[in-house]
Every structure is written in structure tokens, then in C-alpha cells.
């Protein structure tokens, strides 16, 4: 059980546990445009959808999860939260979901699997959650192109080394970066992650910044505390 300020997460049946990437995306994804509808692609425990339920007034928050155990756990976490009536989880893969799209979404978020390297572990469930072949970037971009409302935003967290590739892919479907935050573990470490937000309108001044998580082990930066203070009990 992982306890946040306004909700808790059971994660005993999920291959992908609550981690910094999910918390970062849930806290960072833009909601300034007051989204009515949200889609979380690859929900895992449901943490990002729950964070967005806390942060926004969105009335329809849908999540998509292919793994049966994770799907059941996300449903359980949604139902136990204060926002159960706004949250819904589909047990389906993205390819299946976009075959017959019924809704448009004002915000689409994804913390996709992204170990593109060739090795796999003995834990098939964790591999599925972790490996890019389970959900290629192309599929996410295609889904956003199809499902994003006219003023909608796609927000995603990916390895920094994949940033250029993802921006180029998005541009092919006329989705343009709006905001980029590059994440480092400590001031001296290399950039590890990119938080990217896209819209259908090309902006000529993209907001670009950098976020450092820790000054040293367990000593968090003021910026990270500011971003996550509505969620973590310790902040």
C-alpha cells in the first residue's frame, strides 16, 4: 500500500509499482486548459489518473490497461478513492481501443514501457509493463492524433535519449511540443527523462526547463517538493 495525501494505492498485483516517473507525469501534465475528459494510456496501478482526478475538474477520466492483474488493481484503487464516479478503467490494449473510438479527450497522458534493449527478464508480466514492444511510440502518437480534441494536450514521460525521435514522430501527425521538462536525479547526474507536452497548434516559443529531483540522497530540491507537495505525505 502506498499512501498519498488524498488517496492510497494498492500495488501488490502490479508488475509496475508506484515510481517517480508516474508521480512526475501526474503532477506535471498540463491542466491549465481545464480538460473535461482525460485518457491515461497504460494505467498500471492507476496513479496518474488518480493524480489528475485530484488536480482537475475533469468529469470523465478513462484509463486503459492490458494486463489483467493491473487492470483489476487500478479498478480497486479507483473505487477506493474520493473520485470513483469520475474514473473508469478499460481492460484493453491501445490498438483495440482505437479501432472504434467513441470519444475525444482534452488530455491524453502516458508513462509508456520503454526498455527498447534486447534483454528480457524471467518475469513476463514486468517485461510486458517495461518493454517498448508492448506499446511502441508510434502507437501512442497515432492514438493521440485520432483521439485528441482540437485544443487537447498529449503529455508523456520518456527516456531523454528518445526525446528527439518522439518529437519527430509527433510532428508527422501535426502534434507540436508545447512544453519540455528534462529531469535529472541529482545536480551532477545526466539528464535521465523528458516530460513532453504536445498540442495541435504549433507554438514558436516552447517552454523548456530542467528539474532536479534530489540535492543528495533523500534531500529533495525545492522544485521537486513544489511539484509534488500536494501528493507526498512527507512534503
From TrEMBL:
Record's catalysed reaction(s): adenosine(37) in tRNA1(Val) + S-adenosyl-L-methionine = N(6)-methyladenosine(37) in tRNA1(Val) + S-adenosyl-L-homocysteine + H(+)
Molecular functions per Gene Ontology: methyltransferase activity
EC number: 2.1.1.223
Matches recorded under InterPro entries: DNA_methylase_N6_adenine_CS, SAM-dependent_MTases_sf, Small_mtfrase_dom, tRNA_Adenine-N(6)_MTase, tRNA_adenine-N6_MeTrfase
Predominant place of localization: cytoplasm
Compartments it resides in: Cytoplasm
UniProt keyword terms in alphabetical order: Cytoplasm, Methyltransferase, S-adenosyl-L-methionine, Transferase, tRNA processing
Domain Methyltransferase small: 37-158
GO biological process: methylation
Uppermost EC category: transferase
Function description: Specifically methylates the adenine in position 37 of tRNA(1)(Val) (anticodon cmo5UAC).
Similarity comment text for this entry: Belongs to the methyltransferase superfamily. tRNA (adenine-N(6)-)-methyltransferase family.
PANTHER family documented for this protein: TRNA1(VAL) (ADENINE(37)-N6)-METHYLTRANSFERASE
HAMAP family in UniProt: tRNA_methyltr_YfiC
Protein name according to UniProt: tRNA1(Val) (adenine(37)-N6)-methyltransferase
Species in which this protein is naturally found: Flavobacterium quisquiliarum
Amino acid at each position: 500500500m502506498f499512501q498519498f495525501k488524498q488517496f492510497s494505492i494498492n500495488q501488490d498485483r502490479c508488475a509496475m509499482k508506484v515510481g517517480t516517473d508516474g508521480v512526475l507525469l501526474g503532477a506535471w501534465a498540463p491542466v491549465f486548459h481545464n480538460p473535461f475528459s482525460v485518457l491515461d494510456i497504460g494505467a498500471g496501478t492507476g496513479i496518474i489518473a488518480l493524480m489528475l482526478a485530484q488536480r482537475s475538474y475533469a468529469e470523465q477520466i478513462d484509463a486503459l490497461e492490458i494486463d489483467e492483474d493491473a487492470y483489476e488493481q487500478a479498478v480497486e484503487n479507483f473505487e477506493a478513492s474520493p473520485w470513483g464516479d469520475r474514473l473508469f478503467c478499460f481492460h484493453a490494449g491501445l490498438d483495440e481501443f482505437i479501432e472504434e473510438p467513441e470519444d475525444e479527450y482534452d488530455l491524453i497522458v502516458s508513462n509508456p514501457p520503454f526498455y527498447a534493449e534486447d534483454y528480457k527478464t524471467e518475469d513476463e508480466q514486468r517485461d510486458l509493463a517495461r518493454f517498448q514492444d508492448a506499446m511502441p511510440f508510434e502507437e501512442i502518437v497515432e492514438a493521440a492524433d485520432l483521439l485528441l480534441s482540437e485544443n487537447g494536450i498529449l503529455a508523456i514521460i520518456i527516456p531523454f535519449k528518445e526525446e528527439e525521435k518522439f518529437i519527430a514522430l509527433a510532428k508527422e501527425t501535426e502534434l507540436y511540443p508545447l512544453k519540455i521538462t528534462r529531469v535529472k536525479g541529482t545536480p551532477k547526474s545526466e539528464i535521465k527523462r523528458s516530460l513532453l507536452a504536445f498540442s495541435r497548434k504549433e507554438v514558436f516559443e516552447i517552454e523548456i526547463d530542467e528539474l532536479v529531483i534530489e540535492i543528495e540522497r533523500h534531500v529533495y530540491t525545492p522544485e521537486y517538493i513544489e511539484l509534488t507537495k500536494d501528493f507526498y505525505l512527507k512534503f
